[in-house]
Model the fold of this input.
Amino acid sequence: MARYTKLFRAASSLAQIRQRMADTLAACDLNLIYENDEYLVAKEKPGGVKPNLLATVEVLINPPTVAEPAARVDVIVQNEELPLRRDNHCYQIFEVVNQAIAKTSL
Done:
Protein backbone atom coordinates (compact mmCIF):
# COMPACT_ATOMS: atom_id res chain seq x y z
CA MET A 1 0.00 0.00 0.00
CA ALA A 2 1.36 3.39 -0.99
CA ARG A 3 1.04 6.02 1.73
CA TYR A 4 2.36 9.58 1.90
CA THR A 5 1.93 12.03 4.77
CA LYS A 6 2.36 15.72 5.40
CA LEU A 7 2.12 17.64 8.66
CA PHE A 8 1.72 21.39 8.93
CA ARG A 9 0.50 23.97 11.41
CA ALA A 10 -2.31 26.44 10.74
CA ALA A 11 -3.18 29.52 12.77
CA SER A 12 -6.76 29.87 11.44
CA SER A 13 -9.86 28.76 13.35
CA LEU A 14 -10.92 25.11 13.11
CA ALA A 15 -14.00 26.02 11.05
CA GLN A 16 -11.87 28.00 8.57
CA ILE A 17 -9.30 25.22 8.30
CA ARG A 18 -12.00 22.59 7.73
CA GLN A 19 -13.78 24.68 5.08
CA ARG A 20 -10.58 25.63 3.25
CA MET A 21 -9.37 22.02 3.28
CA ALA A 22 -12.75 20.85 1.91
CA ASP A 23 -12.54 23.49 -0.83
CA THR A 24 -8.94 22.52 -1.59
CA LEU A 25 -9.82 18.83 -1.92
CA ALA A 26 -12.74 19.69 -4.21
CA ALA A 27 -10.40 21.85 -6.32
CA CYS A 28 -8.16 18.78 -6.69
CA ASP A 29 -11.14 16.94 -8.26
CA LEU A 30 -11.66 14.73 -5.20
CA ASN A 31 -15.07 13.72 -3.80
CA LEU A 32 -15.57 14.55 -0.14
CA ILE A 33 -17.13 11.39 1.33
CA TYR A 34 -16.94 12.12 5.07
CA GLU A 35 -16.59 15.25 7.15
CA ASN A 36 -16.84 16.22 10.80
CA ASP A 37 -15.30 18.99 12.91
CA GLU A 38 -11.78 17.52 12.92
CA TYR A 39 -11.66 14.91 10.15
CA LEU A 40 -12.17 14.89 6.37
CA VAL A 41 -12.00 12.00 3.90
CA ALA A 42 -11.98 12.46 0.14
CA LYS A 43 -11.60 9.94 -2.67
CA GLU A 44 -10.57 10.18 -6.26
CA LYS A 45 -13.38 9.98 -8.78
CA PRO A 46 -13.57 6.54 -10.43
CA GLY A 47 -12.95 6.11 -14.11
CA GLY A 48 -9.53 7.69 -14.59
CA VAL A 49 -7.39 4.83 -13.30
CA LYS A 50 -7.75 1.21 -12.19
CA PRO A 51 -9.80 0.79 -8.99
CA ASN A 52 -6.78 -0.26 -6.90
CA LEU A 53 -4.99 2.97 -7.88
CA LEU A 54 -7.77 5.30 -6.67
CA ALA A 55 -6.33 7.47 -3.91
CA THR A 56 -7.95 8.32 -0.60
CA VAL A 57 -7.04 11.56 1.19
CA GLU A 58 -7.54 11.88 4.94
CA VAL A 59 -7.17 15.18 6.77
CA LEU A 60 -6.93 15.19 10.57
CA ILE A 61 -7.19 18.57 12.29
CA ASN A 62 -5.87 18.65 15.85
CA PRO A 63 -7.15 21.74 17.67
CA PRO A 64 -4.73 24.22 19.26
CA THR A 65 -3.75 23.77 22.88
CA VAL A 66 -2.28 26.04 25.50
CA ALA A 67 1.19 24.67 24.76
CA GLU A 68 0.68 24.78 20.97
CA PRO A 69 -1.32 27.82 19.79
CA ALA A 70 -1.65 26.65 16.16
CA ALA A 71 -3.77 23.74 14.94
CA ARG A 72 -1.86 20.72 13.67
CA VAL A 73 -3.08 19.35 10.34
CA ASP A 74 -2.10 15.88 9.14
CA VAL A 75 -2.72 14.99 5.49
CA ILE A 76 -2.51 11.33 4.47
CA VAL A 77 -2.78 10.16 0.86
CA GLN A 78 -2.96 6.42 0.29
CA ASN A 79 -4.09 3.74 -2.12
CA GLU A 80 -3.70 0.00 -2.62
CA GLU A 81 -0.83 0.35 -5.10
CA LEU A 82 2.55 -1.09 -4.22
CA PRO A 83 5.00 1.83 -4.35
CA LEU A 84 7.53 0.11 -6.60
CA ARG A 85 8.46 3.41 -8.26
CA ARG A 86 8.85 6.78 -6.59
CA ASP A 87 6.67 8.55 -9.15
CA ASN A 88 3.59 6.34 -8.72
CA HIS A 89 -0.06 7.41 -8.97
CA CYS A 90 -0.49 7.88 -5.21
CA TYR A 91 2.58 10.12 -5.07
CA GLN A 92 1.25 12.18 -7.99
CA ILE A 93 -2.04 12.78 -6.14
CA PHE A 94 -0.04 13.62 -3.00
CA GLU A 95 1.90 16.26 -4.94
CA VAL A 96 -1.28 17.75 -6.43
CA VAL A 97 -2.85 18.02 -2.98
CA ASN A 98 0.34 19.51 -1.47
CA GLN A 99 0.59 22.15 -4.20
CA ALA A 100 -3.08 23.07 -3.70
CA ILE A 101 -2.57 23.36 0.07
CA ALA A 102 0.50 25.56 -0.49
CA LYS A 103 -1.67 27.98 -2.51
CA THR A 104 -4.31 28.10 0.25
CA SER A 105 -3.92 30.62 3.02
CA LEU A 106 -4.34 28.74 6.26
Observations:
- DSSP finds two helices and five strands in the chain.
- The mean pLDDT is 93.
